[in-house]
């Protein structure tokens, strides 16, 4: 018989958040179900909420096995692993800790820029001698273009400015006269000019299906020679053939992308084996602090969904509304401005 449960946990929360949630609900932790679709569907029969890793797809068929499901929750952001229409028809809430990873992704992009500017450091760590190490460049005095003003860009922009970087920006969804540009101290420019003037491009666009293959040959023809690219956006934004050609002919000197689709540079892809294309497996969000923020956010939201009256009555309940939206903040402050120590204090408060 299925184990009675309120919450089926397939992707782990931090221990403190898990203990807090277990005090209020029946929680079953079965991480092995992430790679066992048949058993996962059997376990869904009694679950009212489920926390899933990114690679588990929620479809109409998935929901057919979960008659009591009220919420699908995920620690990471993704728009291609959940049938939102099917969930809406079943009145199943879809929850993602959308802003919990903003700062960690911004730091990943900054690290990526520093690494590509100073690739000789990596070579030296691998044991190469000075004469074999490539001459580096300094970020200070260079120009970095922000392609996309997703919340990550709000945090990355002041980091870059503090290092003496001139910051340009373009976002197809943000008018060039919007106040946001002034608040972020980013110079808005047309897309073609962004590519022509920038020494490096940081890609953090919010993906929509209409942007599939949007970064194509016509666009990349405007790259400043030897340009560097870093990104945390969906790899589907790129037209693989166009990116491969730009990497091979010198328009793009190197490209570092986080969380690319598994087939993006697989055998048979035009990007397969290109040495100056570097891919990492969602390392941008892989920090202790991001995990802490996401875990407490999901724990509170699950409790509010399953027991709304109890959640309202609890003292010291926290407002996590800031983490619900990918929209731009009303103030000029970067999103996710709370420090890890503040989040630790929140966690301690919640355990009391």
Automatic annotation (TrEMBL):
GO terms for molecular function: NAD binding; oxidoreductase activity, acting on the CH-OH group of donors, NAD or NADP as acceptor. Residues 7-294 form the D-isomer specific 2-hydroxyacid dehydrogenase catalytic domain. Residues 308-352 are annotated as: Disordered. Residues 132-283 form the D-isomer specific 2-hydroxyacid dehydrogenase NAD-binding domain. Keywords: NAD, Oxidoreductase. Its EC number is 1.1.1.-. The keyword Lipid metabolism does not apply. It comes from the Bacteria. Residues 334-352 have a biased composition (Low complexity). It is an enzyme of class 1 (oxidoreductase). PANTHER family: D-ISOMER SPECIFIC 2-HYDROXYACID DEHYDROGENASE FAMILY PROTEIN (AFU_ORTHOLOGUE AFUA_6G10090). This is D-3-phosphoglycerate dehydrogenase. The lineage of its organism: Bacteria, Pseudomonadati, Pseudomonadota, Betaproteobacteria, Burkholderiales.
């Amino acid at each position: 018989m299925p184990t009675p449960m309120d919450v089926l946990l397939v992707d782990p929360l931090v221990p403190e958040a898990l203990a807090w949630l277990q005090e209020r609900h029946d929680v079953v932790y079965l991480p092995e179900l992430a790679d066992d679709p048949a058993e996962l569907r059997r376990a869904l029969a009694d679950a009212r909420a489920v926390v899933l890793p990114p690679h588990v797809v929620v479809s109409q068929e998935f929901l057919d096995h979960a008659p009591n499901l009220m919420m699908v929750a995920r620690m990471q952001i993704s728009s291609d692993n959940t049938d939102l229409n099917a969930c809406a028809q079943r009145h199943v809430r879809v929850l993602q800790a959308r802003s919990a990873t903003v700062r960690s992704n911004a730091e990943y992009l900054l690290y990526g820029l520093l690494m590509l500017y100073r690739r000789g450091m990596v070579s030296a760590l691998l044991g190469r001698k000075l004469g074999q190490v490539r001459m580096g460049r300094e970020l200070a005095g260079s120009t970095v273009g922000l392609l996309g003003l997703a919340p990550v860009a709000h945090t990355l922009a002041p980091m870059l400015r503090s290092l003496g970087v001139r910051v340009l920006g373009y976002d197809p969804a943000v008018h060039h006269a919007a106040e946001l540009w002034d608040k972020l101290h980013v110079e808005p420019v047309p897309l073609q000019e962004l590519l022509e003037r920038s020494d490096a491009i940081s890609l953090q666009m919010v993906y929509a299906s209409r942007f599939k293959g949007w970064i194509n040959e016509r666009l990349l023809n405007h790259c400043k020679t030897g340009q560097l690219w870093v990104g945390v956006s969906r790899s589907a934004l790129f037209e693989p053939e166009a990116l491969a050609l730009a990497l091979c002919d010198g328009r793009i000197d190197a490209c570092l992308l986080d969380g690319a689709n598994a087939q993006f540079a697989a055998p048979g892809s035009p990007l397969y084996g290109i040495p100056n294309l570097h891919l990492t497996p969602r390392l941008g969000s892989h920090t202790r602090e991001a995990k802490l923020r996401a875990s407490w956010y999901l724990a509170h939201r699950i409790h509010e969904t399953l027991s709304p009256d109890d959640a309202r009555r609890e003292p010291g309940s926290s407002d996590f509304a800031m983490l619900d939206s990918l929209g731009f903040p009303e103030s000029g402050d970067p999103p996710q401005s709370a420090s890890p120590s503040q989040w630790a204090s929140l966690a301690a408060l919640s355990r009391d």
